[in-house]
Amino acid sequence: MSYNNLLVADAGGIRTITINRPDQLNALNRETISELDSALTEADANKSVRVLIITGSGAKAFVAGADIKEFAHFSIPEGKALSADGQKKLFDHVENMSKPVIAAVNGFALGGGLELAMSCHFRVASDNARMGLPEVSLGVIPGYGGTQRLARLVGKGKAMEMIMTAGMIKADEALQWGLVNHVVSQADLLAKCNELATAIMKNSPTALAAAIRAVNAGYEPGADGMQREIEEFGKCFGTADFKEGTSAFMEKRKAVFKGE
Ligand code: COA
Question: 244 lies in a domain?
Answer without folding.
Answer: yes
